[in-house]
Design brief:
Helices cover 37% and strands 20% of the residues. It is built from 16 helices and 14 strands. It has helices at residues 15-19, 89-96, 101-106, 111-120, 123-138, 155-169, 194-211, 229-241, 258-264, 278-285, 295-301, 308-314, 334-344, 349-355, 358-362, 391-394, and strands spanning 2-12, 32-41, 44-50, 62-65, 70-73, 75-77, 142-148, 175-183, 217-221, 245-250, 269-272, 290-293, 318-320, 381-384. The protein has an eight-stranded parallel sheet with strand order 6-7-8-9-10-11-12-13. Strands 1, 2, 3, 4, 5 and 14 form a six-stranded mixed sheet that branches. Helix 9 (258-264) packs parallel to helix 10 (278-285) and helix 10 (278-285) packs across helix 12. The structure holds N-(iminomethyl)-L-glutamic acid and fe (iii) ion (FE). The site of N-(iminomethyl)-L-glutamic acid (NIG) has 13 residues, from helix 4.
Length: 400
């Protein structure tokens, strides 16, 4: 079936951003077409352009009105910790009283408190929680989403989380990409014996998850009190050898040179980077490792923002994410991250739009499938009821 969509107030194709590999995004890169038409055949885009240029061959096909909305590629959420149980409202309350993220973790909150609840939870409960979270993302424009394990931290419970992702995929058209993240924290069984934990992950866990093909990516929290650069090297070497692509939580609270490590290992992305060094910025800028920034986590934990301006100006490929998780950013809204990035990181509107579509797709190795409206690509768009695309970040997370 062929459908001709018309009455599209603006269509952002992002074709220019694609040509420039998502570096230094400009207004031109958005490829804005006013009063556009899009021809779709069997879920694939055949033609996109100004309505008055619609090729004559399509003039008799079925017309569908977009109701004057603005179209852009479906958003891509490239970093979430969506599968877990329990609430961390108590952690937030403590931070409101002045404690830091690390202090709250030491006082019995933090990742390990979510781990305790998640281990207890059944697959059904986890699936139900994840479905609610996923639809919250979908209703805010997302068509492709990454999900990490990391709240189980035993082989059995990590497998349970990855199986929930597999199950979740059966109920949605959204493209789900699972990440195996056993090195999210040292679990209580291995307290004070983190090197034994790392050994167990390498010798048993990674081979098992690889064998069952339950994840595409492998991620490590490279951070003081979590995993050192040396441990991350050991883990990543094993993961690469077992066929995983790499992502890293790097330079979030302390500056351990996680970004340099990620570039050296050819990671698809280094995420967070609030405390990236000058040398780290240079390395990121000269690589195709995507810098995934999570300004919602900085806002919510009252910590520093990443040097987003420097990264983009130096030429790095920058993506934006909610980092959705119960501890540092319980927000399902990429549009809200756009607003924060504009107002606090001083990104331009074209920069945040590229960062949540094409560059986020790059952070998942999916830039050929997501983040651009062009002939030959699968049809998946976010249709927004605004007068102009600039109203999307302007709407303070409420554009729908
Ligand atoms: O991305 N940094 C590590 N992981 C999460 C926080 C997880 C949690 O606090 O539960 C993050 O911010
Ligand atoms: Fe994270």
């Amino acid at each position: 079936v062929i459908q001709v969509f018309e009455n599209i107030r603006q269509c952002l194709t992002l074709q220019g951003a694609e040509a420039n590999q998502g570096r230094h995004p400009t207004e031109e890169d958005l490829g804005v077409i006013e009063d556009a038409a899009v021809v779709v055949e069997d879920e694939v885009v055949r033609w996109v352009g100004s309505k008055r240029d619609l090729p004559i061959e399509y003039s008799q096909e079925k017309r569908v009105s977009a109701g004057g909305r603005v179209w852009l590629p479906s958003l891509v959420e490239c970093h979430t910790h969506l599968v877990f149980a329990g609430s961390r409202a108590g952690d937030f309350a403590k931070r409101c009283r002045g404690m830091s993220y690390q202090e709250v973790a030491k006082a019995g909150g933090g990742i390990l408190s979510t781990v305790a609840h998640t281990r207890e939870a059944t697959k059904e409960t986890l699936l139900r929680n994840a479905q609610i979270g996923l639809s919250a993302f979908e209703s805010r424009g997302v068509g492709c989403l990454e999900l990490k394990s990391g709240y189980g931290l035993t082989l059995e419970s990590e497998l349970k989380l990855l199986e929930v992702v597999q199950e979740l995929q059966k109920y949605t058209k959204t493209d789900l990409l699972p990440t195996f993240m056993p090195a999210h924290a040292v679990p209580p069984e291995f307290l004070g014996k983190s090197s034994n934990y790392v050994d167990a992950i390498c010798s048993e866990w990674i081979p098992e998850v690889a064998r069952r093909k339950l994840a595409v990516f492998f991620d490590v929290f490279v951070e003081e009190g979590y995993f050192s650069v040396k441990q991350a090297r050991q883990l990543c070497a094993k993961a690469l050898e077992s066929g995983f692509k790499l992502k890293l939580h790097a330079d979030q609270f302390s500056s351990l040179a996680g970004a340099q490590l990620g570039v050296e290992l050819g990671a698809v992305s280094c995420d967070h980077l609030e405390n990236i060094s000058e040398q780290g910025i240079e390395k990121m800028a000269r690589s195709s490792t995507v810098a995934v920034l999570a300004p919602g986590a900085s806002l919510f934990t009252s910590t520093a923002y990443a040097p987003a301006r420097r990264l983009i100006d130096e030429g790095a490929i920058v993506a934006l994410s909610t980092d959705f998780n119960p501890g540092t950013c319980p927000s399902h809204s990429l549009p809200l991250m756009m607003t924060i990035a504009c107002a606090q990181l001083k990104l331009t509107i074209p920069e945040v739009l590229v960062a949540t579509t094409l560059n986020a797709a790059r952070a998942l190795g999916r830039e050929k499938s997501w983040g651009c409206i062009a002939p030959g690509r699968a049809f998946s768009v976010w249709q927004v009821a605004v007068q102009s695309y600039e109203e999307i970040p302007y709407s303070f997370g409420e554009a729908v």
